[in-house]
Design a protein that fits this description.
Layout: E1 10-14, H1 18-29, E2 33-38, H2 44-48, H3 51-71, E3 79-80, E4 86-87, H4 95-119, E5 123-126, E6 128-131, E7 136-140, E8 150-154, E9 157-160, E10 164-166, E11 179-180, E12 194-198, H5 202-214, E13 217-221, H6 233-245, E14 249-251, E15 256-261, E16 266-270, E17 275-278, E18 280-283, E19 287-289, H7 296-299, E20 322-324, H8 335-349, E21 363-366, E22 371-376, H9 379-383, E23 389-395, H10 400-404, E24 411-417, E25 423-430, H11 433-436, H12 438-445, H13 450-455, H14 465-473
Parallel strand pairs: 1-2, 1-9, 2-5, 9-20, 11-18, 12-13, 12-18, 13-14
Antiparallel strand pairs: 3-4, 6-7, 7-8, 10-19, 15-16, 16-17, 21-22, 22-25, 23-24, 24-25
Amino acid sequence: MAFEFERKQRITIVGGGPGGYEAALAGAQLGADVTVIERSGIGGSAVITDVVPSKTLIATAEAAKGIPDAVGLGVQFFTRGEDLRPHRPEVAVNLAAVNKRILGLARQQGEDMRSELVRAGVTIIDGVGRLDGEHTVVASTGTGRGSTDFDRIEADTIVLATGASPRELPTAKPDGERIFTWTQLYTLKALPEHLIVVGSGVTGAEFASAYMNLGAKVTLISSRDQVLPGEDSDAARILEDVFTRGGMDVMSKSRADKVERTDDGVLVTLSDGRTVEGSHCLMAVGSIPNTAGIGLEEAGVQLTQTGHIRVNRVARTSVPNIYAAGDCSDVLPLASVAFMQGRTAVFHAMGDAVNPIELRNVTSNIFTQPEIATVGWSQKQIEDGIAQGEIYKLPLQTNARAKMQNIKEGFVKIFARTGSGTVIGGVIVAPRASELIFPLALAVEHRLTVDDVAKAYAVFPSLSGAITDAARAMHIVG
């Protein structure tokens, strides 16, 4: 008598960054036969060259800034010379040691993620993947795209998580020595004498902040009238003030046309003919999705004009069994979104319960000093009539814990639906705003009112108490 056994669903994932990693774990959890193809290491660029390294650098910059900041709290640092008199020590940063630690941490994080996939029973292929139709992935397992060593993998479901790469301008070609993308900075052995950062979006602002606090002279070239275009204007204004007071030269409404190497540095030529000389230049002018030459068009996968993969709210592409997660898709380029997309894609493909991604509820953070965290609708959208809401802003200077820590910049801003008081968004500018925003994220996700938030007990004194104070001030009279 013959028995029929149900075959495991086969899931092949191209890319092992946050989206691919989470998709693989979800598939393994649901009992699928999962294969991940990754060319540079599990964790992808987010772990190896982007998020983990940059935030580790920023953590070091925070520590460096904390030493002089402690003076404002009455802490004194000194050494004694041969004359036994106290001398103020000089704070120095060993960038070679910093970068060695950064790359070591990134490598360890990638190895930990790889081990987690192996424990879950996921098959990992070190190579480059491309589609060959709707149900086949060809993995080049040699040294690159031109390799003649191939594996053909048949799949019921395919998840594309190929990520993105820094945009390079033909008039400012990175060389990894004087002109850098953000993935190349970790080869520096010494702090740049004068770092010119081209681009004042999130990446440019974060690196400009970090290197300023590490002790480098920094010039930030912004083509817009404020840093962080598109972000909360009050938050951007505070950050620009902090940059200026810290000695940074912020050049607004200035567009870089060309970056050239000189004998001992770089020369940046602006569109109006002005020039800026420095020792090094970081190009932070956006990224492009890694979607070219991997068989998408031939398989019928629709792309946007920018080359991103079109997906719906469950990360599904125009081809029913093919999904996409992370920076290669036309959704917010955040690691947290990539994780959610990867998990959602696999749950949907395998018939498990799934909540479609609601981008309005996504929390984001800019890791400058101070940090800027946001969730939900923005003030501009409310002022433009796109959303109906009330706005309340509480400066952190009124918070007892902020005074104790000598925090001079920052605020909590809450947006609540007119009439009902339902929290629809918020902005926090503060040290560790990335941690403080979570209560507002919960409020937005679960449609809590400002009165619901105000009824929660915040520790006194605490920075989080500013959130309940702001919510209390927005009390809806019953």
